[in-house]
Amino acid sequence: MASSQVSLSTISANLAEFASQTSASFNKLNDSICHLSEDMKSLRGEVTSLQQSVSFAHDEIENLKKEATTENEKLQHRVITLEAKLLAAELYSKKQNLLFWGIPAEKDENLVEVVCKILQEELKVNNARNVMFVNIHRLPKIRGNPIIAKFVSMLDRNMVLQHAYKLPPKSGIGVSEHLPVVIYKQKESLRDAFRHARGKGMKPKYKLVGTTMYLCIGVSKYKTSDEYFDHT
């Protein structure tokens, strides 16, 4: 009977110790869960802070993109403005010049005499010898080596150009304004429309407005050949 009581006491003690250990384990587990909860809260705070930082950085990047786009547009506008001013200045510097085409180059040629002869015999200019020039020379880098003449008087220059408009189409000689390359290309792009209009018996003319070349037929004005053909 005593042996049975001892066993029960031992079992009771063991159970009490097990209960104590289990309680301690649960306490430790509870502490771990509490710490984990705190860590999760801290992690959530860090994630929230990171999200806010990313959002702020994204807004900053978007603002920088907008500023860059605005500055780029300003620079492009400035470049276009400067190019227009340079083109206008180049056009002004060449306004007193005329180019004479289709005159073969000769050794030791007297270009003043050559041009005066063209004015007299081909263009039928009265008092051609009274026309004064700043200088006359050839342009070797341009196909056909045209003669360029810079007139002292714009009145003489315009008068010669008016006479040149009366030259027969197949005379072999041409007279044209001295244009910047950009404007010359504009004129070349209108060539097909010019020929088509002339072939239809119209009276097409090139007209320079500011720094833009137009094809004019009556009151109509065309900036490109496509624009002309779309309306014919």
UniProtKB/TrEMBL annotation:
UniProt keywords, alphabetically: Coiled coil
The organism's place on the tree of life at top rank: Eukaryota
Recorded coiled-coil stretches: 47-85
UniProt name for this protein: Hypp8793 protein
Source organism of this protein record: Branchiostoma lanceolatum
